[in-house]
Amino acid sequence: MKRFLLALSSALLVVLTVAGPVGAKEFGAIYANDAVYRTFGNPANVPDGTGTDPFATFTNSTNDDQLGVAAFAPGSATDHHGGRWAVYRATWTSGDASTLVTSWAELQGYVASGELSLVRDAAADFRCPVLGNPEPID
Asked: Coil, helix or strand for 77?
């Protein structure tokens, strides 16, 4: 019986060692509300054009610190839908491409002034949950 339990324990350890990396999540980061939030990839199916929360990526930013910018995050005053992102492409048109944009309100201000264009990319919609406990921007 001891041999059987030892063999079973060893087999379970091997399975957990192999299966562990498969279940690991890829973590990233985004800006929302002038803070940095951690995110993690999720293989959920999000059909084109069904994203609900605005998320912008920059096509021509020259700032190495520029991340995607989300309109909502945990703790936002308005409801968010758990990271079901409606993707937009932000392109600097007349503004300074090295400017760091860290909130949706700031991004909208640059769009209103004509310094940024914002174009919907429905084919890029995706799901990526945003984790709480944001970090201030240094």
From this structure: coil
Distances (CA, A) of 116 to 78, 93, 129: 24, 5, 26
The Cα 52–Cα 50 span in angstroms is 6
Strand partners, 32: 35
3: tokens are 């041999």
The per-residue pLDDT for range 10-40, each reduced to its tens digit, is: 444 443 334 444 444 567 899 999 999 998 8
pTM metric for this prediction: 0.77
H or E stretch including 84?
strand 84-92
CA dist 80 and 71 (Å) reads: 9
The β-bridge relationship of strands 53-58 and 84-92 is: parallel
